[in-house]
Every structure is written in C-alpha cells, then in structure tokens.
Design goal:
Largest sheet of chain A: 5 strands, parallel
Distance between the termini of chain A: 92 Å
Strand order of the largest sheet of chain C: 9-8-7-10-6-1-4-5-11
Radius of gyration of chain C: 21 Å
Largest sheet of chain C: 9 strands, mixed
Strand content of chain A: under 5%
CATH architecture of the largest domain in chain A: Up-down Bundle
Strand order of the largest sheet of chain A: 1-3-2-4-5
Number of domains of chain A: 4
Shape of chain A: elongated
Number of helices of chain C: 7
CATH class of chain C: Alpha Beta
Radius of gyration of chain A: 31 Å
Strand content of chain C: 25-35%
Distance between the termini of chain C: 61 Å
Shape of chain C: globular
Order of helices and strands of chain C: EEEHEHEHEHEEEEHEHEEH
Helix content of chain C: 25-40%
Chains: A mainly alpha (692), B alpha/beta (314), C alpha/beta (259)
CATH architecture of chain C: 3-Layer(aba) Sandwich
CATH topology of chain C: Rossmann fold
Number of strands of chain C: 13
CATH superfamily of chain C: HUPs
Oligomer: heterotrimer
Number of domains of chain C: 1
Largest interface: B-C, 100 and 84 residues
Number of helices of chain A: 27
Chain lengths: 692, 314, 259
C-alpha cells in the first residue's frame, strides 16, 4: 500500500477500536505500575533521617551540575573508555528513542486529538526518522558492546563475587544480580531490535520511499525480501511485532523502578544529592541526634541521601576494582557493602546495618578511608563515609580491635598516638642548630602544625628536621606550638570516634586561636585534610598549605636554588590525603622537575594512586599475617616500572609504611625511599642557598 | 613479749622457700625470733624450720586442710594478742595478701607491703619499698604502732641457713569458722614445654604488639636454639598459655641466658627471671625497669634487632 | 546484684620529674593521671555480674583528677559515682584509704565489693583486703575468674607458678580482681561526656561521719622520704645499629651457652 506524497507513518496502524482501547489501557496500567514503583522506594527513603539535605536554594545548581556531568559522560569514561562509549551509545540511544516516543505520543494523543493538526509529517518526520534510526543503532551498538564486555571480555570489575562472604555462607550467591543484569540488557536490546524489525516490515510492506531517511529500516526490509515473505505474511508479522515490541516496551518502562533500569532515576538523584566534600569532610553528629547513639545502627538511621544511594549503585564495579583492601585480599569491597545494605534496607528498614547478618565488622574495619571508591564512583555514592558511619556505631557498641582500643585510649591520654609524654612533642627541635620559634608566645608568619608522626617517629623526624632547616635557611618566619599541639584527629575521626575527634579538634582550634599567624603549614596530609576541610565546622578556619606547596613557592620565588641539581630516576607516590582528598598532585611533580629528576609515573598515579594502607586507623590495627600488604603491592608496582633510583613520598605515614615494605618485599637492593623534602635538602647542599 | 614473729608459708604439705627468706630478714632485726606455722599439720615442717636464729616455733593447727584466709587471720590475731610481737613478718605472697592487710586494718597495726629493705631493729623499724611503679624508693617508719606487719618481697632477702633447735609450742587459738570453701586445685597448663628446664630463653612481652607477630618470634627462638617464653600481658590477652609465662604468677626460671625483647620489666616479671645467669634486654624505653636487672641492654627497636638476629642466624 | 567498685586514679611519673620541697612527694607538674589498669578489669567484672538488672556503684578517694576516671566508669555502665576528698587525705596510705572506703561501703550495703588486686603506682596490694578487714566481710584475693551469683560465687584464685585454687564464697563478700580476668569494654568519649549527666556525689570526711583522726589512726605507716633509687652497676649497654646489636647479642649468647 502506498501513502501518496505524505511523508509520515501510520501510528497505531490498523488497530480496531477495541485494540486501541486495550493499548491505551495497558499504557495507563504501565504508568501506574511505574508510579507505584517510584513511590515505594521514596517512602522507604523517607523513613531515613532528614539530615544533611541540601538547601532548597542549592537544588537548581545541583540539577544543572548533575545534568552536565551526566551528558558529558566523563565519569563513566574515566579509566574505561570502552565502557564510556558503550554507555554513551546506550544512554543517548535510549534517551532519543524515548523522547521520540513521547514526541509521537504528544502528536497523536494531544495535538492531533485536540486540534486535528499533526506535526508528525513532512520534513519534521524525515528528520525524526533518521535521527531515531541512527540513535537506535547507537543503542544497539552500545548494548552489544556491553554484552561482549560482560560475556567475553569479563573485566575484573564485573566479577560479582563478593570478598566478604565465603562460598556457602548466606548471601554469597550473586546469581540474582548476574541474571538480572543479563535480562536487562537482553530485554532492552530486544526492544531495540524488534523496533528495527518493525520498521523493516513496515518499509517492506508499505514501501514509502525516502529510504535514505530510514536507512536501518531499509536494511531490515531487505531481510524480509530476502526471506521471500509474502505481502500478507508481512501484515501478519507486522501485527505480531507491533504488539510484541509495544508490550515489551511498556513492560520495560513499567518495570524500570523494579529492575536494574531504576538506576536511570536513582543514579541521577544520587548525582544531584551527593555531598561534594564526601570523604574530605565527614559530617559532625547533628545537634538533634546528640543523645542518640552515634552512626548507623540500623537502616533507619541512614540519612535519606545515603538510603537513596544504596539504590543508585549499578554494580559497575569501579570501586570494587580500585579498593586497596579488596585488591590485597581483605574482606571488603565497597560495592558489596552498598549492595548488602541495599538488601538489608529492602528486607526491613529496622534491619541492622552491621553485624553477623549484615555488613561484617571485619569488613568495615578493613577500610583505609582512602576515598578511591568515592572518587571513582560515576554516580556519587559515598561508600567510605557510609562505612565511617557504621564504624561510629561500632565504636558506640565497643566492637573494635583491642589494639585500636588501646591506641584511642593512649591518644586521649597523651594527645598523640605514640603514648609519648606530651611534653616531648617538640623534642625533635633539640638537635637543630637554631631555635624554633614558639608560636604560642610570638607571632609568626607560618604556623607549622607538625603532626604526630613527624614529631615522634624517628625516621620521620629526620624529614621534619630537614624541612625546618630548609625553612630556616630560606628565611621563612615560622614557629610551632610545641606541646600545645595534639593529634589533629583526622584518623581518629575516620575510625569513628567522633567524641575523641571533637575533643582534639576543639583543643587544637583553641590552641591555634591563641596564636598569631598568617597561614598554617603542615607536613602531614592527614593533618592537612582535617585542618583545612573539617576544622571550620569547629570554629577554626584558616589557610592551610602542605609543605610541598610551600617548597614550590620558595623554589619559584628563587629562594631555594635547587634547579637541576639532582638527576635521579624517580617515581612519585601520591598520598591519598594530599592527592585524592585535596587535589595536590602538581606541586610535588613540579618540584621534582625543577630538581632535575626524571619522573617515571607508576600506572596507578594521581587520583588513581594506590593507598599505602595506613589510613582509616589501619596503621593502628594489626594486619593478618600472610596477606600481601597494600604497601608491598605498591612497591612491586614501582619496581615493575623499570630501574629506578628512588621511590619518592610526601607523607610521614608513607615514609613509615614504604620503608618497611621495601624491606619486607625484598626490594631493598632495587629501590630506595626518599621524602621530597630530603631531596630538596640534598639539592640545596649541592648548591648554595640564594640570599634572602 | 616483743621481738619478731615470722609467719611461715606452706602449700600442699610443702614449706615455701620464702619462709626461710623471712627468717633471714627477721634475724637482721635482732631480738627474740619466733616462727608461726598456721597449717593443718604444722609438725611436718619441723625440720625445715629448725634453722639457726629461730627461738621458737609456734604451731597453730587448723581444721581446714588448705589455706583459708579468715582462719589464717584469726590465727594471726590470736598470736599477736598472746605474743605481742613488735614486728610480724610475712612474705608478699598471694596467700599472705589474702589476709594480712585485714589483720592490720582490724588491729590498727603498722603495715607495709612489698618491702625490700628493713633496718633499725624491732622497735625502731624503718623499711624501704619502691614507689610510683618502681621509679622511686620510699622509706617508711611506724611511729605509735605497737605492732607492725611487714610483707617482704620474695627474693629480696637472703634465706636463713644453718641449723638450730627452736622450742616447739602448740598454740591454741580461737579460730572461728572458715568463710570460704576450698573446692579444688588446678595445675598450671602443662603445655608442650617446660621453660624452667631451658638453658636459653627468648622472652617477649607487650612490645611485640600483636598476636600475629608471635610466629615470627617462635621462628627466631627456634633458629637461635632458644625456647620461647613470655611475660604476663601476652597470657592475659589470651595469645599464649600460662605454661610459657615467666613471672610471679607464672614460672620462675634460671636459664644460662635470658634474652628479653620488648619486656619492660614489671616487678612481678623480674621476680620470675632475675636469677638467670645472663640477662640481655632490648627495649625502646631507656627507662624500662628491666635494664636494672639486665647484664646487657640495648635501647633499640626489637623488630629491627629481631630481623637482624634472624638474618644473622641464617 | 548491687556491686560497689572502689577505683583509683593512679599517677604516672614523667621521665624528668622533680620532687616536691619536703622530699615526700613528686611535684604534681610531673604527674600524669589515669584510671588504674586493675580497675578496668574490676569494673568490667562488676558490670558483667550485675547485668542489666543490677547496679554498679564506683567510688574513689581522690582529688579532682580522679573525676575523669569515675566518668569513664560511668560511661561504661556504672550507675552512680562517689568521690571522697579533703586536704587531709593527701598522704593517706592503703589502710587509711580502706578506712574511708569502708564508710562508703557501709552506706551502700552492696552484695559484692570488687577491688583491683593492686594499683600500678603504689603497688601495696592491700587496700582491697584491708577494706574487707574493716568491714569484716568474707573475702578472696587475686581472682582470675568469677562465676555464680545467686547468693554465692565460685572464684578461681591465681597462685604462684600458674597454680589455680577454686574456692566458693557466700555473699556479701569482697574480691580482689586480677588483670586478664576479662576484656574491659571501651568507653568512647561521647559516652564519657554524656556520663556527666549521671549522679556523681562528692563527699568530705564529715559527710561520711569520719574525722581526720579516724583516718590517720587507720594509716599503716609514715612516709619519711622518697628518693631516686641508686643506679647500681646497671646493664652494659650495647650501642650501634640493629645489626651491630644483634651481632653482639649472638656473641654473648654463644659465649654464655658454651661456658
């Protein structure tokens, strides 16, 4: 049958009124089912706590930002370009096809019904046609790539096996997820392909011409021709595919909130509501919860945002793949923590958030709070802060390693994790040939917050003294607080001991407030993170600079003549709290460049840096023997890069962890550790200091 | 009467060595010296108590077969009332600690425990003991006290020797009823090893930080030809059985070599090993009390030294 | 079950301490205070024995420095705290303190009194049993395990050489508790802060019906002086790197074992 001249296509082709009514009825049912499916989790989220919600005024900027990020797809393409393209195809394909259906529905059911006018014709229709054809291809292509990835390439991130359950234990089996994800892909690609089949049979039967505007449809039409299907056969096939495609499509839409497809809604919502400072700035306990046990005991204690985020996970596996605990065989995968909590929330909002039948204690305690998971999650899930909330509650209940318990008690008593008398905090200065100013009694330009490790650990003390000497000789006006300084509290907080953190923060803020200074310097990234990002919540807001940034300032101002003095082959390890948490990637590299060193990057560098294993209080919790330590894993990575002179670090805990790991991994003859300050000092000794 | 009353200590039919140390200390005070034996069958210790310097043995027979603190307290109170000694000397032992303070409290007597020095004679007594966990020494006297009870640290005084023939007196005391009931004795966990027989002990303490490090030190002990022993905190934490514990509530050892890694040297531990021929101690704290009994010491990280010992013992 | 737990805030002396002018005390500037290690175990034992239905009352003789220790015990679950102090108690020894505690325990009439075997600073090991003496309570010293509860307890006494004696004792009684008997729970700082809401009574001697003479008379002796112990010959210190130290140690070991 030929449709003379008019460039359009029949909608609801050849349907009896009865069938048309049935179709609309089913469409309405599908919308209702969808609506219920959206309402149910919202009701669940509302049973969480309405804390830390963004202000109304922030919502519009957040929507804009989330939408921009989503359309750019940069988060999904990061470190996995293939997945990036596959998802772009799927996303834009689905979006365009969905929009296309809406546009058509509006024309058919609204515009045409009311005014008799229809825009679904002519050039509009042609344009519409070709756009949908191409994007449909993008959809099919994207889905096909995803299927290949999942079925043939089998990347580690898509291995759903969870490290926190042994075979046979409850909730070990991931079959439901695996099958569910295949069904999702299968149904969607079937919808797309049956769409083309339908287009093909229409083109074959109606022969409308303008094939250039329905290219794929034309290809599929050849299929029917090739099979030699008769005209009446085409009609039958057309009826059949129409209903099949239609029913499958509206079922899919109805099922969106009940299946993996729900991520279209939940992941987007997560991107809107997420905390941009997640992990950098943990949340103080809200006033209204001051007399409640801290943290998350049950799912009802979760913030609304966090409850929602449990449903936003698409099991993309990026966090699973990047987690240093998981990589070194510990029973933690951030993905599986989120999925476990999701399952608990769906079983009942008052289900426990941790415990024997929920997230295991040793799972939560394996976390190093390195933020690699938060940083890489394309949809903004806050795995590490959620684990921190679990820990807060575990501390309440006394569920913690006994060594950790002792360390916390020691920190409470002596203000440092070494158990040293607080009076000895400034002892490291005694070996210097000059006096270090006491910032408590004289104004200084730079108040140097030294930190526990830099003050007390013998190996780190050499770095501290080196820095002091450099600053002194460069004429920098600095001072320290001696025993007025206490552990900054970053790791105490990450362990979940909010009360102790608060006590430390309040003490330090008070001590700092008594001093006169322009900026705070710190040589410890952990201290940097909490001083800069968290102390403002406790009344202390100052400019805080890391020693690598300061050294670069001095070099660039010509106050340290180090240019080209060293020619080592080095690799540089980005500390979690300087790099990922605070974006300090460039200053150390620029310093190395100025020094004249040749920097060979490790495969996992910058935001992908691999944690040394000390964070999150792990340095206070003994490791199980036998397991590879994250620091050893990192040294092996460095050594595999090629012959190197030095492994360069800029954090005192890295100094401790990697000095040890170089020995225990048997690489003492292959590589040597140097802290960046030590290299600067070495360069200075080689050249005179510029006169101030 | 005046003079010194020593309270001998026995368990399961054996006189404990500390009793002779008490007699030795009492002799240095001068004056009449009696030894009290509060036991189910005091006569079984007659021979061992017949040492030089003992004037009289006062035997108080108890109906209960084993030590019972309330009966022992009544016995001592009775003896103090009838003999009126200037000084009563007991060992700073678990049994004595179980009743002597109560006797001192009720009687308003002078009292000092864990005493390491005595001087001045029975009626102008001055004693020395440690203070502030061993960092200081305190000197005490007892003005206005007719009777002073002293608990002497085991191993701090020379035991009395020689032989004598003290008067033997069976003393009747109103003992009252026991207020606790002995149920059973349980031997120390025997385990697979008897550390008291070892020539060379490698001993570790809190400094090893974690149970999982024990394996490393077991290995090191093996390599060096030593038996591994531990100080109390590791047993308290459940990492090791008491069979390997050196100390007052563990074993007393006298090996040829005692190598202590990461042990600070609490008094109770020192009590168990200070008799070793050669004591070598490694600890990061230069003030650790163990250095006061060690023959050789090193202020160093025990893991570093252990690693080196391991490598060199290759 | 109602349990009273006397606790002590003990002093740790700084490495560069100085003595007070009269030579009988350490200058308080060089003292750091914390809850006696044995008392962590006795408080934990009390909390476990008292359970949810019972009551645990902690009491201490000490100045304001001792409040922190009491708050920690309250944070762990003790229901009430009592602190007794006045200037005359500064030099109170073990028996004098026991005399004061006896007045408190009489007021409270508990089923059980749990003390630590000793305190880590004075190490008298006498306050607990002395207290039992003043109260004329049945007592067992150096308990490493406690069980039972309905009117009587089965207690394991830890003897020298690892030997254990099992005894039974009726309530009310007093026990002194040894370290390692349990795993003391952690008192997090929020709980310690919230513990300020719990009842904490501060009393002087008059509040207990005691006079300074009562207490002084109960004292066991008089501290004449404190002195730094003589260094003695001391150990021969081995210096150098870990490798050098290890080498020397091996030499010494070999030498002594072959001798």
């Amino acid at each position: 049958m030929l449709f003379a001249a008019e460039k359009t296509r029949p909608v609801l082709w050849h349907m009896s009124t009865g069938l048309e009514v049935l179709w609309y009825f089913l469409a309405v049912v599908s919308v209702l089912v969808f609506a219920y499916g959206v309402w149910r989790p919202i009701a669940k989220y509302r049973r969480g706590r309405a804390i830390w919600m963004p202000a109304r005024s922030e919502l519009w900027p957040r929507f804009k930002r989330a939408t921009r990020r989503l359309f750019a797809h940069s988060a999904i393409a990061r470190r996995d370009p293939l997945a990036g393209w596959a998802h772009r195809g799927t996303f834009y394909g689905f979006l365009v096809l969905f929009a296309g259906t809406i546009i058509l529905a509006i024309d058919t059911d609204v515009v045409h019904r009311i005014s008799g006018y229809s825009y679904f014709k002519g050039n509009f229709y042609l344009g519409y046609s070709v756009v949908l054809d191409v994007f449909g291809l993008a959809l099919v292509g994207g889905l096909a790539v995803m299927m290949v990835r999942r079925g043939i390439l089998r990347p580690r991130k898509l291995d759903y096996a969870r490290p926190d359950r042994a075979p046979g234990e409850e909730q070990f089996d991931r079959r439901v997820y695996r099958v569910g994800d295949w069904v999702f892909l299968g149904v969607l690609i079937t919808i797309a392909l049956t769409g083309y089949l339908l287009e093909g049979v229409r083109v074959a039967e109606d022969n409308p011409g303008y094939n250039a505007w329905t290219p794929i449809g034309w290809v599929f039409a050849q299929l029917y021709d090739g099979l030699g299907v008769s005209q009446s056969g085409l009609t039958d096939i057309r009826h059949g595919i129409w209903w099949f495609h239609g029913l499958l499509a509206i079922s899919f839409v109805a099922a969106i909130p009940y299946t993996k497809a729900t991520h279209m809604l939940t992941s987007y919502a997560s991107m809107v509501l997420k905390d941009p400072l997640a992990g950098k700035r943990l949340r103080p306990i809200p006033e209204e919860l001051a007399s409640e046990p801290a943290g998350y005991a049950t799912l009802a204690d979760f913030s609304i945002t966090h409850l929602l985020q449990l449903d936003a996970c698409t099991k993309c596996g990026r966090c699973h793949e990047v987690c240093p605990a998981n990589i070194t065989g510990r029973p933690l995968s951030p993905r599986d923590v989120i999925l476990e909590l999701r399952e608990q929330a769906n079983a009942g909002i008052d289900h426990p958030a941790w415990g024997e039948h929920s997230v295991h204690a040793d799972t939560a305690w394996s976390c190093m709070q390195c933020n690699a998971c938060v940083e890489i999650c394309p949809v903004g899930i806050e795995q590490a802060p959620i684990i921190n909330q679990l820990r807060r509650n575990m501390i309440e209940e006394g569920e913690l390693d006994s060594n950790l318990q002792s360390t916390l008690q020691v920190i409470h008593k002596s203000g440092n994790s070494f158990g040293e008398n607080r009076r000895r905090r400034g002892r490291w200065t005694e070996e210097l040939e000059f006096e270090v100013k006491d910032a408590r009694t004289e104004p200084v330009d730079l108040l140097w917050f030294v930190g526990d490790y830099a003050s007390f650990d013998p190996r780190s003390q050499t770095v501290t003294r080196a820095l002091a000497t450099i600053l002194h000789e460069a004429g920098v006006d600095f001072g320290i607080m001696f025993d007025g300084e206490r552990n900054a509290g970053n790791d105490v907080r990450r362990v979940g001991e909010e009360g102790l953190f608060e006590a430390l923060a309040e003490h330090n803020v008070a001590a700092l407030s008594e001093c006169e200074f322009a900026r705070i310097l710190t040589s410890d990234p952990h201290s940097l993170n909490t001083l800069r990002n968290e102390y403002p919540d406790y009344g202390g807001e100052w400019e805080v600079v890391h020693h690598t940034a300061l050294l670069l300032e001095l070099i660039q101002a010509g106050r340290l003549a180090v240019d080209g003095q060293l020619s080592y082959r080095v690799t540089y390890h980005d500390p979690c709290y300087l790099g990922r948490h605070n974006g300090g990637y460039d200053a150390p590299r620029e310093i190395l460049r100025r020094l004249g060193c040749e920097l060979i990057e490790m495969p996992r560098n910058r935001d992908n840096s691999f944690c040394c294993g000390a964070g999150g209080g792990r340095i206070w919790i003994p490791d199980k023997p036998g397991a590879e330590r994250p620091s050893e894993n990192r040294i092996r990575e460095a050594v595999s890069v090629g012959p190197l002179d030095l492994f360069v670090v800029s954090c005192p805990k890295d100094v401790t962890m990697f000095e040890d790991a170089i020995k225990t991994s048997g690489n003492a003859d292959n590589i040597r550790l140097a802290e960046l300050t030590e290299l600067v000092q070495e360069a200075l000794v080689a050249a005179p200091v510029a006169a101030v | 009467m005046s003079g010194v009353l020593v309270v001998a200590e026995a368990r399961r039919g054996e006189l404990r060595d500390v009793s002779l140390e008490l007699i030795g200390a009492a002799r240095s005070l001068g004056g009449p010296l009696s030894v009290a034996v509060i036991d189910h069958d005091p006569s079984r210790y007659r021979d061992r108590l017949s040492v030089e310097g003992v004037d009289a043995v006062l035997a108080v027979a108890t109906p209960n077969e084993h030590f019972e603190p309330h009966v022992a307290a009544r016995a001592l109170e009775g003896l103090i009332a009838s003999e009126q000694p200037d000084v009563v000397v007991l060992g700073h032992t678990i049994d004595s600690l179980g009743f002597a303070p109560a006797v001192a409290a009720r009687g308003g007597h002078g009292f000092a425990s864990d005493v390491t020095r005595v001087s001045g004679g029975a009626d102008s007594l001055v004693v020395g003991r440690s203070a502030y966990g061993g960092k200081l020494e305190a000197e005490l006297d007892f003005p206005g006290k007719d009777t002073v009870l002293l608990l002497l640290r085991a191993g701090a005084f020379e035991p009395a020797g020689g032989s004598g023939s003290p008067e033997w007196r069976d003393v009747q005391v109103e003992l009252g009823e026991p207020r606790s009931e002995h149920v059973d004795f349980r031997e120390a966990a025997t385990g697979d090893v008897d550390i008291t027989k070892a020539d060379f002990l490698l001993s570790v303490g809190r400094g090893i930080e974690d149970k999982d490090n024990l394996e490393q030190f077991e290995g090191l002990a093996d390599k060096m030809g030593a038996i591994l022993s531990v100080s109390r905190p590791l047993v308290d934490a459940g990492w090791v059985t008491n069979a390997r514990q050196v100390g007052q509530s563990g074993k007393t050892v006298k090996p040829k070599v005692y190598l202590a890694l990461g042990i600070s040297g609490a008094v109770q531990h020192l009590a168990g090993m200070r008799g070793a021929d050669t004591i070598i101690a490694v600890n990061t704290d230069p003030e650790a009390p163990i250095f006061s009994v060690a023959h050789y010491g090193a202020v160093a990280d025990l893991f570093d030294v252990a690693d080196q010992l391991e490598q060199q013992s290759g | 079950m109602k349990v009273v737990v006397p606790v002590k805030q003990v002093a740790v002396v700084d490495e560069d301490f100085e003595l007070a002018d009269d030579g009988t005390a350490v200058d308080p500037d060089f003292l750091e205070w914390s809850l006696n290690e044995w008392d962590e175990f006795s408080v934990e034992a009390a909390l476990q024995l008292a359970g949810d239905d019972g009551e645990v009352v902690v009491v201490t003789v000490g100045d304001d420095e001792a409040t922190e220790g009491l708050l920690t015990c309250l944070a762990k679950g003790a229901g009430r705290g009592i602190r007794v102090w006045e200037q005359s108690l500064t030099s109170a020894d073990a028996l004098a303190v026991a005399r004061v505690l006896a007045a408190v325990v009489e007021r409270e009439s508990p089923d059980l009194v749990l003390c630590g075997v000793q305190s880590s600073d004075a190490v008298n090991s006498a306050t607990g049993i002395g207290l039992a003496g003043f109260l004329d309570l049945p007592h067992v010293a150096v308990a490493r395990a406690i069980s039972g509860g309905e009117g009587s307890l089965t207690v394991e006494r830890e003897l020298e050489g690892g030997l254990v004696e099992v005894v039974r004792i009726g309530l009310p009684a007093l026990l002194t508790v040894q370290t390692g008997i349990n795993e003391p729970r952690y008192a997090n700082l929020r709980a310690i802060k919230q513990a300020r809401e719990k009842p904490l009574e501060v009393l002087d001697l008059a509040g207990l019906g005691l006079s300074g003479d009562d207490v002084a008379g109960a004292s066991g002796g008089r501290l004449r002086k404190l002195a730094v112990p003589e260094a003695g010959e001391g150990a021969e210190m081995l210096t150098g790197s870990a490798a050098e130290v290890a080498t020397r140690i091996r030499e010494i070991v070999q030498d002594r074992l072959s001798a």
